[in-house]
Amino acid sequence: MKILDIRALRGANYWSNRWKKLIVMKLDIEDYEEKPSDRIPGFNERIKELMPTLQTHTCSLGYEGGFLERVKEGTYAGHIIEHIALEMQTLAGMDTGFGRTRDSDGPGIYNVVFSYVEEKAGIYTAKASVNLYLGISEGKSLDELKKILDNDIQNLREIREEVRYGPSTGSIIEEAEEKGIPHIRLNENSLVQLGYGMYQKTIQATVTGRTSYIATDIASDKNLSKKLLASMGIPVPKGFKVYKEEEIEGAVDSIGFPVAVKPLDSNHGKGITVNISSLEEAKKAFHSAKHYSRAIIIEKSLEGKDYRALVINNKLTAVADRTPAFISGDGKSTIKELIDKIKY
Amino acid sequence: MTKLNIDPRRGYGHEKILTQITIDNMTLRLLELSGYTLDTVLEKDKICYLKSTANISTGGTAIDRTDEVHPDNIFVLERIAHIIGLDIAGIDIIAPDISTPLSQNGGAIVEVNAAPGFRMHIAPSQGLPRNVAEPVVNMLFPPGEKFRIPIIAVTGTNGKTTTTRLIAHIMKNIGKNVGFTTTEGVYIGNRLIQAGDNTGPVSAQMVLRDPTVEIAVLEVARGGLLRAGLGFDGCDIGIIMNVTADHLGLKDINSLEEMARVKAIVAENVFKRGYAVLNADDKLVLKMRERLDCNIAMFSMDENNPAIAKHTKLGGIACVYENNFITLLKGHWKLRVEKVINIPLTYSGKAAFMIQNVLAATLASYILHGVRIEDIKFGLNSFVPSVTQTPGRLNMIEVGNFTVLIDFAHNPAGMEALSKFVEKLPNKVKTGIIGGTGDRRDEDIKNLGKAAARMLTNIIVREDESLRGRNAGEVNKLVIEGIRNEKPDVPVKVIEDESEAINFGLKNAKKNELLVILPDNIPRAIEIVNKFRDRLNSVTIEQSDIPNMNEEN
Lengths: 344, 553
Hints:
By secondary structure, chain A is α+β, with helices and mostly antiparallel strands. Chain A has helices at residues 43-50, 66-73, 77-91, 119-137, 142-163, 167-178, 213-220, 222-231, 246-255, 279-290, 335-340, and strands spanning 2-9, 22-28, 99-103, 109-115, 183-185, 191-194, 201-204, 207-208, 239-242, 259-263, 273-276, 296-300, 305-312, 315-323, 326-328. In chain B, strand 14 (295-300), helix 11 (306-313) and strand 15 (317-322) form a beta-alpha-beta unit. Chain B starts with 9 loop residues before the first strand and ends in a 17-residue tail after the last helix. At the A-B interface, strand 1, helix 5, helix 6, strand 7 and strand 8 of A face helix 1, strand 3, strand 4, helix 2 and strand 5 of B.
């Protein structure tokens, strides 16, 4: 069997108007032209065992189990590969559902067409499905096949995580789509154009083309933003900006314990220590914050819950009450064991 | 409290709502501060934090409290966004309770973040998920505001490029900044942005991504459609010129019916409120109506075409050639736009195939909101087939005492249309420089030779630079076979190299001869002819040629 060509379609196409994201794989199935699935010993049983969820594929018969029935009766390599490709993507968390297999330039040559969610994953799936089909046909052991399939699924999940939009960008794209607003991805990350031509707007995750540079600059300087807010009558914790270890003691004396130590400019909570109640701890925290910023903030550590408020276009949109990851003891397990149980 | 460990929502990456927890420096530092190590056995029900911050990306959890916020706090939070100046702000607050005023409960604002993550709001571990994406989209595109520019897509076997350029020309004349794609390049206004065949999705996106473009006119060719699909998500007007034999046998498209399905993609992706503009004289194009749910407009060279008659009787819009006019039909009304004799593109009506292009362009412009009949008329009057406005499309160039005609005709239907035009020209000697394209079917290449033989008195056969899978000389053999089948005695000379063939034709052209060049490389052919012409007629102006100039000056 030879893969002659793999193409990724991204817009309305010859095969479908509705399904725009399709892989078209031109395949020469060579001697498998003489070997439909009913003539390959054990094929039917092995594919069922390997991918039991193929049971959900109705295929042209229109009811559950339809596809497996066709495998039992005998169907061709291209058609089976098409279904493996769809199921493999579903198993990797990319559920999608369009497939066609049609003959092409001569005997044994087929166009296997199936939809994808992420292009890179779709192209990987095309090759992996051919490989898995050959494994089943050539009589590899079920254990071996399971290992191949699991490996492919894990690779596909990793590809998916690498290429797909993060949750914030993804939610905006989804909302835009619902409103009929077209979008064009401008890089591999989260830079996206919404709208066409002169009406276009750009976003990069939750930064928009109209997000002010000065505002972003102020926000990233925690000391400056606190100062500005305090001067406008908004409550902020008392604190100081320090650069050297020697300055810590004076700052702590003036604020009073407990204190929090954080880099002036950091994100995702990197380098932050809260609830510090000794000078020694404060110094330790100072040094770990130093990895992220030259200037360090020491401020009053406040009692209370950690809330995040989201204000969009000057309207309060959502507030969440957040808790850091924690474990709770059972009197028997070590901390390591408790954390390990979190992973599966 | 239960352990997070067994929470089934923890998965791979963003796959599920929560993330798996990793032991990092932050975790180790926290343990150290509490006097623990990884091997400490934790007392029953004792809570141990693994991270100092609650970010979901590091394993934190979030509970939605949107509905509990005290109105005073709402005021403060919105005021903060104003003061900092962020359109999307993530404000961190530490307070005993968000449902009582911060000013009373001792809470405070810890920091303000640009680019806040949405995950904790879209998919909180507890409480109502909030669609925070909607206000972002509504801010960028307030309801009722535009987010699309009009897109006019043009496809078909022949006439796409000229129709595209003519529509772009009409739009430019009403002051619009038009982005358009053709087989010669991508243009923004009058500027060529990228030269070369640009009829695929990447070129379409180059126009749609341009922030200055007000209208897009996109030539859509078969190649790009088959390679990657349509390059935009829908169009306002989709024009289908015709479906004739060309490129058959390539990329699994073997019959005219299959080719019609390829071209129909454009019509089928017209928005419901938009218009498919169909050539009513082409059966395959007309048949596309059956699968369309958008509005339909039609054009025809024959006012009495039954499809047109039926369509307009039901109040439909059409454009026809009648009584030497380009005429719009709207129901029972006739709007005469311009006499064909006044439209340079049609060579006073001699180039019938150009009339079709005019009909399609007129119809599309008329449908587009805001284009007046006067604008269309002015556009038709001022669009001149020339090496600058329509390179390679019926360019007639006077060279000394003979005439050169450069045209891109390269398939049987194109040749047929061209030969009808050439037959109407008065020149006695008509020499042609022609060549077949390697990836076409044998019969198509032979037919090209046949059509050439019908209209020419002398033929020079050249070879394309790219043989597209054929052996050297193979295509020429087929072309000559076609010529001989049609006219056994027409003189044929073979000069493989195109530049050499053109130079030979130019040097040997006699007075009043017509030299028809069907080039492989259009810009190069135009350049050779222009160079030859410059050498021949260097312009000298005598003082006596200048009007109103006195000898004393």
